[in-house]
Amino acid sequence: MRNPRRLIFVALILLSACAPVRIPTSDVTPTPLATPTMTAVPSIVATATPVPTPTTVLPEGGAIAIGVIGNSTLELNGMPDLVQDAVFESLLQIDPASGALKPGLAESFQVSNDATTITFRLRAGVKWHNGDLLTADDVVASIKAFSSPGFLGTPVTDFGTLTRATASDNQTVQLAFSDGYCPALTSIGTLKIVPRTVAISPNFPKLTPAQMIGTGPLKFVSSNQNQIILARNADYYNGAPHIDTWTIRVFADSPALRAAFTAKQIDLMSGALDDYSALKKISGANILSSDSPNFISVLFNLDTTTLNDARVRRALTYALDRNALLNDIGGQAALVDSSVLPGYWANPGNLPRYSFDVAKAKQLLADAGWRDSGDGVLKKNGKVMTLELWTEADDPILEPLAFHIREMYAVLGIQVKLQLDDRSGWVTRAFEHRFDLLLLSRKIPIDPDQRWYWQSDQSELNNGFNFGSYANKNLDGLFKNLARVPACESNARAAINGDIHRALVADAPAAFLFAPKKYLVARDSVMGLSPSAFANDFWNVKDWRAK
After folding, report:
1. What digits encode the pLDDT tens for the residues 231-284?
2. Rounded CA gap, 356 and 363, in Å?
3. pLDDT tens figures, 180-228
4. In this structure, are 421 and 458 located in the same domain?
5. N or C: which end of the chain has fewer CB within 10 A?
6. Do 308 and 448 have their domain in common?
7. How many angstroms separate the CA atoms of 214 and 105, rounded?
């Protein structure tokens, strides 16, 4: 029987990832431990701001106003990302350069050889904003509160096969699983931790202002329906932030956000690919870009008889001039050969690439029995190749790309009918697998586990996220192995991930195009910014400065 809470988690994370380019911001008795094999090592990441010369006097103190889209709710998983990440922290952090795990509130972690037990050792001396010490009881209470069947907030954590969370002592937390489940190391490791008194309160996860107590670099001061005010945590264990006062102002949409920046009501804001042309026109805007954790692709529906032939899918991939499509969006994306970002720790780095090759595409189609009889139209057994290409109507990025893709397929002699639908209609069609080709953007999870998209048992109509009904028994086995790697050893998981993505390239269940850029837009007075594709744009707020 399927776990309904897990399905809700997946729906919120992955369905939101099927949105256009803007994706909302991606869950007994302890068993003996094997030798530790996965203690992360911090890495050093350069900021986007040039390093000052020794004679430069760096600013200290001051205030900054940041604009966000959304609301000022104090529901823990629903509040603005900056507030979540600056006030509350997790057991582990994401390396901004590679997406790998590294110490956070936990100074180290160990995984048993059968991957059914994870043990975290907490840093000593970490204090909550109210001065109390962080203990293992706080962590256990947080995990139990978020994983409770009665949890009423926004689910964002995949707890997998978790059966028990216990505190061995004040500094040690142990998690037990009924089956090996390595993705939990990332999912639970990045869960926000709150004091035990907050976690067990009846209103959790909707916090009161008095319950906005974290361990992070910024402290909660106050909020109203339009803004949240934070202040620096002078006692932060990792070094006090440089800026004194942080005002997060909430706006309804991107135009309102840009208007506030133009009017100098805010000093910084985020932007997505569909904002880029408007962002470039703003006077005094310093635009920093990074890859977004999303990939745009043309998904093939293997329920369509024509597309159930891998030769046809490969031909349709060779026929796409990705550089020309990249020009359509002003070059604001990174080409990807699969559903993995460049620079990612588990990216195999040597994936085969589909170059733009119309002749190769035509030969593959001919091998599959689809030939031009002289009228410029591909036919097989007298039947014309006709495919429907669906995408979301009025999407400023996807819709223009869809028109260009149709033109590229027409060169092969394929009759492509472009079909556009609104958001709800498009999502319904995707879940019902009622398309031939589907142009969409999807979120790339921070853990290598992408079984939701590609595993055969995820293709259930109206339920699974394997919209294209893709099935590969070997790949199914690789995903199971990825979840049960002995001690969740990172090199072994990276090797399996490489096999997974080589299989995806060979089978071509989708034509992978690119990962669009995202932007951090600031005035010159803001220093130290270093947006990341993996750790988000606010991972180093303690290092920011305001002139």
Report:
1. 999 999 999 999 999 999 999 999 999 999 999 999 999 999 999 999 999 988
2. 13
3. 999 999 999 999 999 999 999 999 999 999 999 999 999 999 999 899 9
4. yes
5. N
6. yes
7. 11
- Compute how many other C-beta atoms are within 10 angstroms of the C-beta atom of residue 419: 19
Q: Which domain holds residue 153?
A: 89-198
CA atoms within 13 A on the CB side of 278: 15
- Per DSSP, the residues of 237-274 read TT---S-SEEEEEEESSHHHHHHHHHTTS-SEEEEEGG
One domain for residues 321 and 430: yes
CB 414 within 8 A of CB 298: no
- Judge if 169 and 249 occupy the same domain: no
Residue 298 near residue 48 (C-beta atoms within 8 A): no
CA 194 to CA 214: how far, in whole Å? 6
- Looking at the predicted structure, is the pLDDT value of residue 56 above 60? yes
Please count the residues of the chain: 547
Same domain, 247 and 139: no
Spatial neighbors of 546 by CB under 8 A, at least 6 apart, are 59, 62, 63, 64, 242, 243, 267, 525, 526, 527
> What pLDDT sits at residue 19?
37
| C-alpha closest to that of 194 among 208, 210, 212, 206 | 212
| Chain centre to alpha carbon of residue 164 | 27
Look up the pTM and report it: 0.89
b/e per residue 170-181 (b: at least 16 CB within 10 A): ebebbbbbeebb
